[in-house]
Give the backbone structure.
Amino acid sequence: MTVDQISTHLGQADVRPALAELQQHYAQRGIRLVERGKRWHFETAPDLAHLLRREKEELRRLSRAATEVLAIVAYHEPVSRAEIEAIRGVQTAKGTLDVLMEAGWVRVAGRREVPGRPVIYATTPEFLAHFGLKSLKELPGIDELRAAGLLDPVDDEMIESALSPGNPPDQEEDDGDATGLGHNDDGLAS
């Protein structure tokens, strides 16, 4: 729940000090009170999570295209499909955004008030929770990514070309549905 929602249930009381106290109280226990995406919830302490897991996690690898699109949405939200393609420099396969929406990390955030009214996309609270972020402000910058060795020279060239104006999108190879999740045909992500 958000701070405002909790406050409403408690007669508009200032709940921030109480949340901070509860967070301290549970810090060394089996559960933790955490804030993810401006919402507070309890979660199992990381050192005990394996004891409570009943189902084996199915690891799904995102394709490189899906990873790029997710990064663009996170760093530039709200963003339209055309803007994603302009940044990437290639057209985005229809299923790429569908996979991210099915994973619960990207959502339709409305329509841009321009001719054609394109759909715009944004990240979800589930995205923040999955990656352990309180807000998008905690995303690493380019210098931090380079320092961590996460950008190779090919990525640097791609970033440089994406930042220079007037690069028309190339046709992306449709790498299919790399996650095995299938495609959503409701037209929301087109």
